[in-house]
């Protein structure tokens, strides 16, 4: 993405590299909302492909790699990707700079597991639908998309960034044949955790769950 959002992310990561405050979304470890989900399913990669959207410094991507996924992590900010590569010099994760609004064509329906955590809500609301649909298109047949986002009630005013997601915005990930299998409102109602999946051959039925 060109313009304000990508420039904003790069400026925040560059500032952190210069000793300023760390990015507010950086947890410093794998997101507990992801870890809990994976542990509840006894998740094992089995050499399947996973993708982490807006991977930042790479904690979630490294977590999935340790579970046995062939993992790709991408971020808008080149500084974040450079930092992730430095932080994990022996990593098997493929760290790349990419734009969620202009993703590589070869990623279409490629990944068995896609994890989106807090990226879409960091973008201006007018970009949420396109970003959600682009992320949905990355999920392979029989694949799963996990969406983690903070919550906002319909009609409530918010001055972002971030712009937490309403339930209606969360449902926009259910596009291009993806089915919303389950939605949890966790962390005392402040977070969404949603699981979507695609059937075999791209159909919407009988998709196995992780």
Can you put this structure into words, describing what you see?
The protein is an alpha/beta fold. The protein has helices at residues 4-17, 32-40, 59-66, 78-87, 128-136, 167-170; strands spanning 49-53, 70-75, 94-97, 111-117, 139-150, 179-186, 191-197. Strands 3-2-1-4-5-7-6 form a seven-stranded mixed β-sheet, with helices on one face. Helix 3 (59-66) links the parallel strand 1 (49-53) and strand 2 (70-75). The longest helix is centred in the first third of the chain and has 14 residues, at 4-17. The radius of gyration is 16 Å and the shape is globular. The two termini are 31 Å apart.
Enumerate the spans where pLDDT stays under 50 for 5 or more consecutive residues: 204-208
CA radius of gyration is 16 Å
Distance between the termini: 31 Å
Structural class category:
alpha/beta
What portion of residues is helical?
Answer: 25-40%
Shape: globular
Strand order of the largest sheet: 3-2-1-4-5-7-6
Short structural summary:
By secondary structure, the protein is of the alpha/beta class. It is built from six helices and seven strands.
Provide the fold topology.
Elements: H1 4-17, H2 32-40, E1 49-53, H3 59-66, E2 70-75, H4 78-87, E3 94-97, E4 111-117, H5 128-136, E5 139-150, H6 167-170, E6 179-186, E7 191-197
